[in-house]
Amino acid sequence: MTKKGFVRLEELAKTCKCLTDDLLHEAASGNLRLSIPFFGAEQQNLHFLAPTDNSYVSADLPDSGVFDLHLEDARALIESKSAVVEDIFSPCGKWILTLAPPRLLHISDVVVRIEEAQSFEIGLDLTPPVTDTERSRLLRQIAGMALLIAAENKVYKVGEKPSANAIADAVTPLFDAIKNANLKGLKDTNIRTAITNGLKLLGVV
After folding, report:
1. N or C: more exposed end of the chain, with fewer CB within 10 A?
2. What pLDDT does 6 receive?
3. Dihedral of CA 21/148/175/72: which sign?
4. Over the chain (205 residues), what is each successive 10-residue block's mean pLDDT?
């Protein structure tokens, strides 16, 4: 794998005409494999773990390499836009490396292998993204519906405010029950984020 053997996640999002968060959610669902590149001096921070399948592991790393992240790392990037990475998978996937010390990873560090990006077919919505004004309006509308739900049933409240977690947990099964529904971007984490952001825009949170 050469240094040109990958594309930055942010660049792939632009190519797919979607948000980086959309790709992170696909990665967290196992639909897209994320990686991080290691070159030159950074290799001195890598330590081998014993292979689990008796495969041979060279004591030397190549001059350049791209190593794969865990699903949990993608989920951490969704939640906080960063992740503390301790283990990464080898290109062949048969052994792992431990980073010593662990590396703090940001979205800008994440890459996708060229072959992975080329085979990535998830039917992304290629319609033009909404404007900031339209997004703000939609988020505030979502927040208004969350306020209504919380007013109707205290189960969906935390104190006197809507509980984004409780509402998302209740809505997700309803979406899942709809046959042939387009559920892209409607995972519970997306719903929670939309409610929370909308409430912030309303000044409720």
Report:
1. C
2. 84
3. positive
4. 69 84 88 78 42 40 68 88 84 70 87 81 51 89 95 92 93 88 80 92 86
Which of helix, strand or coil describes residue 130? coil
Residue 5 CB partners (closer than 8 Å, separation 6+): 66, 113, 114
Asked if residue 33 lies in contact with residue 27, where contact means CB atoms within 8 angstroms, the answer is yes
In this structure, what token pair is assigned to residue 131? 């404007």
Q: What are phi and psi of 56, to 5 degrees?
A: -80, 135
What pLDDT is attached to residue 187? Answer: 82
The domain boundary residue, chosen from 118, 144, 161: 118
Residues 21 and 97 in one domain: yes
Q: For the chain, how many structural domains are there in total?
A: 2
Residue 1 lies in a domain: no
